[in-house]
């Protein structure tokens, strides 16, 4: 049967199909630290909608699983090879098909990188707002498939709010078009929103019509501060919200994270910043204001930070602001330098941030693990990190992660704010959703993909996709 | 069978159930100009989630249709009695259950009026952004059920972007909770977005967690202008977009509409405005800038309006701005004063606005009908109005509406930007969606409502709900 599928793929797609062991192997991983147990059956490098339709028709007829894959930068194992699957690589579908200045929209193929689209838009004074930390390396298709978040969401929204319409190849190869070229449109159910964030389990996104914004005029002002502890920093971020200020960026690093970042960056990089000297237990909070009124807004933020006990720096200089933001950006490299990293992604209502930080500390203490954490404080999204040695995620890390997810959900939050469920978090999906929602979601999956060939094992448990382990 | 259902309703809900002819009759209409052929079986005034669950359990067991109804202000016939149905009136569920300043959210029952929520929020410096023209009289539940738009959407988004989570009673009486108290959250498919805009066909919204915004600081500046014709006005609005300006409000009235508004308001109301003297064929365009930088933005808008041939007034005075906006608000009263009004609701990409205006003029000429039109020019949403005498929509009005919908869809737009499909536009649903999308949408409906009791005839054709006529 697999031989037969391969022959049909070769017949239909020729040199776009590869079974080269190195190419197969490269699809077993993403950036989550997970690696599939086996390589896929084949990788198809699709170059067109027709290619994608041809793959799906063949796979549908044969019952062969298909894993849609973009830039491979996922953090939840949502696009890694599953046993016996065709990996449908969309990274060659990377053309910007249209930019309409008059309608403030772009039509793109799924493989266009977020950063490349923004580079093309900048000279026009336009901007695609979704801003995952991975924007330089992640694709628009992947951003949409995971409903990616990022640093700017409290002010500028998540990816869903920037997607106007989609072209999607369905499980049997038919091409579905959803949405409009308009901001408004309420004809029928919102399939565009349903497919956004569906992680390749309902169809393969082959084109997206995305909403653009005018680039914000005015300066960017950065406010950074060191605080005696993470709870003081969390209180400072809450005070900003309470003052009805909505900065573009508000990022928080706890003490464990900050110590690692400081030692990773070294004294020279931190000279002249609030981190020039760090006392043990200190945490870091950074905010950026943009657009008109940025300076006045930043002054109020600085006041709030100082009132909460922060040692504050304000910078209107772009290069200096970038240097302060680089402290935040150094978090993941700093962790990766010391071992394998499992990045978690819980979100809680902003008011529960101090409780969540406290819970993470307690969970760490309970299992004897340090859990350095960074948060998008403006929207309550935390990334607690587990750092470990070796190929396997240690049992106590799983146990600690389990405690953490349950705490986030109990605080009114969610087990994934922006990375997606993938294969990493599917074991908790039903716990968070509840039985009725879970049943409806499975029903939607069955409606779109009756034979279950689209990304099996992602989001929902499946025997076929169960065999992946931490890298 | 109906007797049996009535008895069970009375047993379970007592005095909340009414079969009083006047009460039944009042549910046969909304603000669309449509009236159902028959009164419903009964009206239930639900006061709690338990009441709603009890109604659905009884209806589900008996196969009785249920029409969820809020404030009755719909414009598409989406909440009017269908034959043999229980009308589930949610207007008594009008409590604001919680306002969290720290999390910038409110939890409300569905019957809370949009304006009442905003009145309660204003002293806190907070604001629920969805802003349908009906905000004083329409309910949050109805706003969500139709994914309502309004005047501010180009800048502040549609209702969907303000809904964080829902509690929904399913067709069989189970209570489903969707979403979170967080801005981010990607666990599973986005049922919150799927149910938003579903017009009561997937479940009954009994609670909503909605996102609030800080009230914009700074002044509001109004720019209004008369133009030689509607195409010049449309070109002026396009010039504003092209200048990368996104005003809070941008409203356009064509010549036919403006003539009626001017005669309705009278000379005194227009003294000192650009409409003090109107030449035949002139059109009206109004923009408002808010927040920081409003004055500078408004100056650029005024320049663009003047360059496009507008006779421009700029006002920084709140009362004067309100007086200019009152010209726009007078559109519907002016039309209603001269006959029955059928309000349409197409949307097109902004760049196609001039073409759509031209098409409306041609369609009007073809059928010998005047079609006064108002547009949310900032987002390409047009409300062409048909004014006629008598109880029945004349055949040529339907023919003209049919031409208009097909033109909007051909221009890359949609047959409803914000009012919903209801019973008025269901005949065009499949045309706009295409066969594959239509089939998936019917599948979603069947998944949530296998026995088809929820708002039959709304959105999809159904023999049961087919018997309504224009009032």
From TrEMBL, chains A, B:
<dbReference type="InterPro" id="IPR051914">
    <property type="entry name" value="FAD-linked_OxidoTrans_Type4"/>
</dbReference>
<dbReference type="InterPro" id="IPR016164">
    <property type="entry name" value="FAD-linked_Oxase-like_C"/>
</dbReference>
<feature type="domain" description="FAD-binding PCMH-type">
    <location>
        <begin position="36"/>
        <end position="215"/>
    </location>
</feature>
<dbReference type="Pfam" id="PF02913">
    <property type="entry name" value="FAD-oxidase_C"/>
</dbReference>
<dbReference type="InterPro" id="IPR016169">
    <property type="entry name" value="FAD-bd_PCMH_sub2"/>
</dbReference>
<dbReference type="GO" id="GO:0016491">
    <property type="term" value="F:oxidoreductase activity"/>
</dbReference>
<dbReference type="InterPro" id="IPR004113">
    <property type="entry name" value="FAD-bd_oxidored_4_C"/>
</dbReference>
<dbReference type="InterPro" id="IPR036318">
    <property type="entry name" value="FAD-bd_PCMH-like_sf"/>
</dbReference>
<dbReference type="InterPro" id="IPR016166">
    <property type="entry name" value="FAD-bd_PCMH"/>
</dbReference>
<keyword id="KW-0274">FAD</keyword>
<protein>
    <submittedName>
        <fullName>Glycolate oxidase</fullName>
    </submittedName>
</protein>
<keyword id="KW-0560">Oxidoreductase</keyword>
<dbReference type="InterPro" id="IPR006094">
    <property type="entry name" value="Oxid_FAD_bind_N"/>
</dbReference>
<dbReference type="GO" id="GO:0071949">
    <property type="term" value="F:FAD binding"/>
</dbReference>
<dbReference type="InterPro" id="IPR016171">
    <property type="entry name" value="Vanillyl_alc_oxidase_C-sub2"/>
</dbReference>
<keyword id="KW-0285">Flavoprotein</keyword>
<dbReference type="Pfam" id="PF01565">
    <property type="entry name" value="FAD_binding_4"/>
</dbReference>
